[in-house]
Target: Cell division protein FtsB
Amino acid sequence: MKWLLGILTFILLATQYRLWVGDGSLAEVTRLKRQLAQQQEKNAALARENRQLLREVRSLKVGTDGVEAKARYDLGLIKEGETLFIFLDSEEAKK
Model:
């Protein structure tokens, strides 16, 4: 009878070891869920960035308004006949 109790105790401990420590353990499942949530956040941020870039590409392809706005913002270009005004902050004017 003692040997049966010993075998059953060993089997119980072996199954509990895998549950708490081995592959597929509760700790590993929790860690993987955290990693999954982090990766989903990264994917969502990249999807937002992709949508923004797609909107920008479409606006640049459709007409000159997008190209003109990009040139004005990035390169500081102005149209012929326009006057450019630059306003300095009071701190920049003192330098």
Remarks:
- Residues 2-94 form one domain.
- Residues 78 and 84 are 7 Å apart (CA to CA).
